[in-house]
Amino acid sequence: MTLIDAMTSIDAQRLLGRIRELGGIGRDGEGRLVRLAASDADRLGRDRFVGWLREAGLEIAIDRMGNIFGVWQAPANAGHAPILVGSHIDTVIDAGIYDGCYGVLAGLEVIETLKASALVPSRPLAVAAFTNEEGVRYSPDMMGSLVHAGGVGIDEALAAVGTDGSVLGEELARIGYAGDEEPGFLKPHVYLELHIEQGPVLEREGVPIGAVENLQGISWQRITIDGVANHAGTTPMSMRNDAGHAAARVVTFLHDRAKASNTPTVATVGTMRFEPNAINVIPSRAVFTVDLRDPFEHRLQAEEAALAAFLENLAADGGVAISVERLARFEPVIFDISIVELIEAAAKKRGYASKRMTSGAGHDAQMMARLAPAAMIFVPSAGGISHNPREHTADAELVAGANILLDIVAQLADQEVSGDG
Amino acid sequence: MTLIDAMTSIDAQRLLGRIRELGGIGRDGEGRLVRLAASDADRLGRDRFVGWLREAGLEIAIDRMGNIFGVWQAPANAGHAPILVGSHIDTVIDAGIYDGCYGVLAGLEVIETLKASALVPSRPLAVAAFTNEEGVRYSPDMMGSLVHAGGVGIDEALAAVGTDGSVLGEELARIGYAGDEEPGFLKPHVYLELHIEQGPVLEREGVPIGAVENLQGISWQRITIDGVANHAGTTPMSMRNDAGHAAARVVTFLHDRAKASNTPTVATVGTMRFEPNAINVIPSRAVFTVDLRDPFEHRLQAEEAALAAFLENLAADGGVAISVERLARFEPVIFDISIVELIEAAAKKRGYASKRMTSGAGHDAQMMARLAPAAMIFVPSAGGISHNPREHTADAELVAGANILLDIVAQLADQEVSGDG
Question: Which cofactor does it need (chains A, B) (predicted)?
Answer without folding.
Answer: Zn(2+)
